[in-house]
Amino acid sequence: MRDDTAEVTYRRALALITVLVALVGAVWAVLTPAFRAPDEPQHVNSVLRLAYGGGWPAAGEALVGPAVDAAREQAALATDVPGRHLDRVELPPFVDVPPVPDAQRGTVTAENALADPLPPGTGTRHLPTDVVDQMTQHPPLYYALAAGVLHVTGTAEARWDLQLLTLRLFDVVLLLPLPLLTAGAVRRLLTRRADGGRAAALVAASFTLFVPQVGHILGSVTNDALVTLSGAATAYLCARVVTGDVRWRTAAGLGTVVGVGLLTKVMAAFALPMVVAAFALAAGPRGRRAAGVLVAGAVALAVGGWWWVRNLVVLGTVQPVGIPDRFPDDAEPNGPWYFVRTVVMSLTRSFFGNFGWLEVRLPDAVFWTAAVVVAGLCVLAVARGPARRGTAVLLLQPVALWCGVVANAWPDYAAHGWISAVQGRYLFAGLLALGAATALGLGTLLGPRLRAAVPWVVGTGAVAAAAGLAYGFWGFYQGPDRTVADAAARWAGWSPLTWPQLVLVGAVGVVVAVAAVLAAARFSRVVPDVPDHPRSPAVRVTETVTATPSASPATSSTTSVPAGKAYQ
């Protein structure tokens, strides 16, 4: 009976943590000034192109439409926010530009949504970069879904700021399953533990609260939102596979989610080493495991992999260039060590917190401390954790992404001395693996005390998320010699929401954060029928193999306890 109570309290805490993660993304969606996220104008433009039947031009041939161009001007995008790490003297401060009143903001219609097509054979090399929409170098799935959201919500023809908020909240919805999938993966890896891995699962679900950049990016308009979701679903299914679930439907489901990712962005391809390793290390007949890899690969190819094969056959490259390189040659590149140092710094900082167009930077001490803690716990989980093999398999995904980003940046640096396309958001497809490994590492460090630490972890995560939002608020709106009240007034002036609505959003976030911590505390106080550590050697365990939809082979067990013994 007590174990049933522990499960109920676990589910309640997980639900509240999940809502809190989504609310943090929603607050970022209403906090970040319009188009102040990487490539957000181009992402919105590509959504509008599909919403208004403009098709999917070849890479390098798509232009930004008049509606988005006018919206960027009204949003004062050509200004510097007060928290920018380096002010540009040629641009005015954002805080000196009065917000455009709601009634004067432009409306997107069929007359202004689409750009005039380029004449046949005309390239975009001679055009300014802000005129080119490079997103057609990617597959169109995310943009087609987002265009459908505009039609379903009735905002396909609306003020640009309302459209922008609608699309941002769509991305927040895509973020919602991430904590659930992360917790599910941890419980799957710890399925043989007597406590079912509940405490570690709650810690893992809280991981993104400690990474402010997740809320900022996934609370903006970006195809990274769908890649993050598909990457998390892929990692969850790999956790099932490596723990013995090699059924055909699991392999087909794995291929489907990989294919969805491939029909969104090439980053999904870096999950393939994890998929292969999961089947290679799973229990079961070798032939069945090999067949599972083939089934997953065939389905992934049919769903989304064909796009990249087509590129290779028709265009001679896996991913065409959306904007031609325009970097001037550097006569004296600074050497490999400069490249490594800069790439590691840029990836780490922009993974944890580079807000806006990467110009509002968290202090170095903050993101380096976070990076060291995460890396240390991941290493501990692989070296001494209770699910070393499964953890190592999952971590292949973020490791492959990291190596892919570095390898992609090197040719431009070697040829021109410039480092480009190095952003931490490209690692977000591996968030589940990092969250799971961090939680397992912390569990290894604390042992049975992890259950008591759960409310402290959730509470600290809530504080970290709030601190990230406060830092973004300061960096976006509070200029020199301006008060917090001045900054709040500017935020309300730029937002499509009213001041009472903004207060309500913040208040709901605070209430949910408190409720999540209290639910975690309630969970930590419930004494389950089994201890928070692996089964004692004194307990006789008989393993049985089942093949039911809810339990994979080699994961079910029956346990008999000697008379007079009880779990404490």
Structural class, by secondary structure, is mainly alpha
Largest sheet: 2 strands, antiparallel
Mean pLDDT: 89
Q: Order the strands across the largest sheet as they lie in space.
A: 1-2
Order of helices and strands: HHHHHHHHHHHHHEEHHHHHHEE
Number of domains: 1
Helix content: 55-70%
Please tell me about this protein's structure.
This protein is mainly α and 568 residues long. The chain has one domain (1-568). The chain has 19 helices and four strands. The chain has helices at 2-31, 40-51, 66-74, 141-153, 160-175, 177-189, 198-205, 212-218, 224-242, 248-262, 272-281, 286-315, 336-352, 364-384, 388-416, 431-446, 450-477, 484-494, 499-525; strands at 354-355, 360-361, 540-544, 556-560. The strands form two sheets. The chain has a two-stranded antiparallel sheet. Strands 3-4 form a two-stranded antiparallel sheet. β1 and β2 form a beta hairpin. The longest helix is centred in the N-terminal third of the chain and has 30 residues, at 2-31. The chain is globular, with a radius of gyration of 25 Å. The model is unreliable at 532-568 (pLDDT under 50).
Describe what is shown at a glance:
By secondary structure, the chain is mainly α. It contains 19 helices and 4 strands.
Q: What descriptors fit this protein?
A:
two-stranded antiparallel ribbon; disordered C terminus
Fold blueprint:
Blueprint: H1 2-31, H2 40-51, H3 66-74, H4 141-153, H5 160-175, H6 177-189, H7 198-205, H8 212-218, H9 224-242, H10 248-262, H11 272-281, H12 286-315, H13 336-352, E1 354-355, E2 360-361, H14 364-384, H15 388-416, H16 431-446, H17 450-477, H18 484-494, H19 499-525, E3 540-544, E4 556-560
Antiparallel strand pairs: 1-2, 3-4
Helix pairs in contact: 1-5, 1-6, 1-7, 1-8, 1-17, 1-19, 2-3, 2-4, 4-5, 5-9, 6-7, 6-9, 6-16, 7-16, 7-17, 9-10, 9-11, 9-15, 10-12, 11-12, 11-15, 14-15, 14-16, 15-16, 17-18, 17-19
